[in-house]
Request: fold
Amino acid sequence: MEAMKVGLLGLGVVGAGTWHVLNRNAQEIARRAGRGIEVTHVAVRDVAKARSIVGPNMLITDRPEEVVCDPTIEIVVELMGGVTLAYDMVLKAIENGKHVVTANKALLALHGTEIFEAASRKGVMVAFEAAVAGGIPIIKAMREGLTANRIEWVVGIINGTTNYILSEMRTRHLSFAQALSQAQGLGYAEADPTGDVEGIDAAHKLTLLASMAFGIPVQFTGAYIEGISAIEDEDMVQAERLGYRIKLLGITRRRDHGIELRVHPALVPIESLLASVEGPMNAVVVSGDAVGQTLYYGQGAGAEPTASAVVADLVDVTRLHTADPEHRVPHLAFKTNALIDTAILPIDQIVTPYYLRLNVDDQPGVLADISRELAHFRISIESMIQKPTELGGAKLIFLTHQALEADINEAIEAIEKMPFVRSSVMRIRVEALQ
Reply:
């Protein structure tokens, strides 16, 4: 059988990794797919650089529209990154009846509903395993392996850069700035790390996981997003003392009146599986009513781990190329007409325990006054640590029982107005993974 013809948009880290994996494992891939998979066209900015990677016989262009409009191409692999050009090229590829494989989580988080609907109308597939957690096959698991389950919640460490930074802060007692600089030196963080350290990248990925978990449209704009730049070494130390570690988590959970969709730092119990995930690794825990909790762990980025997911999608698309579109696995695990536009809950409606840290004057009555203020807003204290600081001050750390976020916000506002409070209140949510 003739090989499946593929057009590759982008030959950066992941694109080059995909090229090398496809060529190195060509025979094994063909045995699995039932036919060969052959890249015949490449679109890049730097043609000369691409030529040095793919050799003299490849058709290379700096015009991606030439690839998506070429009648011989059956699958377009979009690995350019960015949103604007990628959006145009993906929709044009679909319009031309081509299947699409992409690792572009930002594109799908912002425009996924439109893209998936367009693909359904044209009877083509959009595969995106590489868009979430790199080489971990979490999309496959959610779309197929867990279809018998009513998913209750999904919690994950889905950004390796932030997990590396937090791991270094904890184990080597580095500041956030020091750990970030180290991550940049090792290539884990970009020169502009905003998308990673402020939680945006993780929120893109979580949006897709939530859609597959609960059968809802892609709703990135509803996500609550908070990064790790305010975390201090003191927080890492005190969390450990209280029996927790701090991780940047993506959390989506089914509630009676809507869906939680939030990314933020959280204290997780030391004995939990997620607490032991260190360095640039990723891990996702999915809780289903039938299967219970399942864990997916591995490398969330890098050339060949991500290429592994891209090639797996290429094999799937090749296998199903001639199948009736109505009988293929739906893009978001649920049929398009079965998606339910469930509300995303605002962050002030979540209920969770909290870690609170603040500096105060070390004088009689301070602890009593703060405890009284917390009680006024229906917040009870589970444990408390008090440490003296310089110049007659004290550092207070509270771990609360479960409380409503709206109540915590009001309590923090009131506490920060007290005359003996020297600092703003540092608030980190606690995630018990239950």
